[in-house]
Write a structure and sequence with these properties.
The protein is of the alpha+beta class. It has helices at 3-19, 24-35, 62-70, 79-84, 99-104, 106-112, 148-171, 181-184, 206-214, 230-243, 247-250, 279-286, 304-311, 316-328, 331-338, 342-356, 361-372, and strands at 39-46, 51-58, 117-127, 131-140, 191-195, 201-204, 218-221, 224-227, 257-260, 266-273, 290-296. It has three domains: 3-171, GAF domain (Beta-Lactamase, 2-Layer Sandwich), CATH 3.30.450.40; 178-296, Beta-Lactamase (2-Layer Sandwich), CATH 3.30.450; 304-372, Arc Repressor Mutant, subunit A (Orthogonal Bundle), CATH 1.10.10. Strands 6-5-11-10-9 form a five-stranded antiparallel sheet. A hairpin with a 5-residue loop joins strand 5 and strand 6 (201-204).
Length: 377
């Protein structure tokens, strides 16, 4: 199978997994192989609580999977970097910190090295102020560190992974078999519309009909689905037309199209092609090329940590040390908590003093408090 054929088949399976999450354990090994890695995972992290969980993974021993979330997520030097990165931007170790410094960390010494893992390419599929939904592919020692080819291949599948995960979260079902797709999603809270290539509505669930009755954020015009915003209408129409040509044709279009209701409420639309894979059965029943999911948009606000990092031009590692100073105290305690050398902590502290204008660690604590607690000024 050529690279193009392999990519096309993989994209189709990724979209099938949006409707049937039980397919993810089959999809992830294929995605890791295509990207050029040893193992892969779909998971989430919460930077505030330093917690997280894995939804699906492959290639990681269950013992080490549990150990990571029990212990090493708190020591992972890459976590803060995930919240600096833009959604869909592949991030490897070298993008966050010195690789030599990474090799000194407890997270690598005690978790990565025993498994033979030497690097990881992470992508944020969705972010809030405190958490991120992530897709990652691990690199084994036999394959070497993340290279340009791995980044290029990751970029080819990430938009499709993001669309599938976002739609899966909207549907929030254990399984939605393609044969009973329309019946299954009638009860979900998000509006769902099945449309043909010309945007003609061929089916809508109860929430979708309610939106059309209100005429906001979408309405039916001559039987076609039309958002209130003309620019959004153009974007959606392009996706419907491309969906008729197959999964790969859709590309990065229609992943999260912003919509505005008449009352100013913000919504977002996700488009899933129905012309390939197991989804073809659902689309064929209604002569539909795409399913459109519409729901209220979450509040999009940067975290205080992200604001501090960008304002003072801190590197992810410097921000990580700054936050650790606030939580645990002096250089020796920070070194123990982060799993790095005390001399490394002191080097980063000097850089933090220079960038923030602080004279001592107490000033750094006060600086962070001023952004996280509005009563501290």
């Amino acid at each position: 199978m050529s690279d193009a054929e392999q990519l096309s088949a993989l994209i189709g399976e990724i979209y099938d997994a949006a409707l049937d999450p039980a397919l993810w354990p089959q999809v992830l090994p294929k995605s890791a192989q295509f990207v050029g890695g040893h193992a892969a995972a779909l998971f989430y992290k919460n930077a505030a609580s330093k917690s997280g969980d894995v939804a699906y993974d492959c290639g990681i021993d269950p013992y080490y999977r549990q150990l990571y979330f029990d212990k090493y997520i708190k020591l992972d030097p890459l976590t803060v970097g995930h919240f600096f990165a833009e959604v869909e931007q592949p991030v490897a170790v070298a993008d966050i910190m010195s690789y030599d410094e990474f090799l000194e960390t407890r997270a690598y010494q005690e978790w990565g090295r025993p498994q033979g893992l030497v690097d990881v390419l992470n992508v944020a599929l969705d972010k809030t102020a405190t958490s991120a939904a992530m897709y990652c592919v691990f690199r084994h020692a036999r394959d070497g560190r993340v290279d340009d080819q791995m980044r290029r291949r990751m970029r080819l599948i990430v938009p499709h992974m993001r669309r599938a995960v976002l739609i899966g979260n909207v549907i929030d079902l254990k399984t939605a078999e393609a044969d009973g797709f329309a019946d299954t999603i009638d009860g979900i809270s998000a509006g769902m519309f099945m449309v043909d290539a010309s945007a003609r509505i061929v089916h809508a669930n109860a929430s979708g009909h309610a939106m059309l009755a209100q005429g906001s954020p979408l309405r039916a015009v001559g039987g076609k689905l039309a958002p209130n915003d003309a620019s959004a209408e153009q974007g959606l129409d392009e996706v419907y037309a491309m969906a008729e040509r197959g999964d790969a044709a859709v590309g990065v279009k229609g992943i999260a199209i912003p919509l505005m209701a008449l009352d100013g409420e913000r919504y977002v639309a996700h488009v899933l092609p129905l012309t390939s894979g197991a989804r073809r059965r659902a689309g064929g029943t209604y002569a539909a090329t795409a399913a459109v999911f519409v729901h209220k948009a979450a509040l999009d606000a940067p975290s205080p940590q992200e604001v501090i990092g960008k304002l003072y031009k801190l590197t992810p590692t410097e921000l990580r040390v700054l936050l650790a100073v606030v939580e645990v105290g002096g250089a020796s305690e920070v070194a123990e908590a982060l799993g790095i050398a005390e001399s490394t902590v002191r080097t980063h502290l000097l850089r933090l003093f220079a960038k923030t204008g602080a004279k001592r660690q107490a000033d750094l604590v006060k600086l962070v408090a001023s952004y996280t607690n509005p009563l501290v000024r």
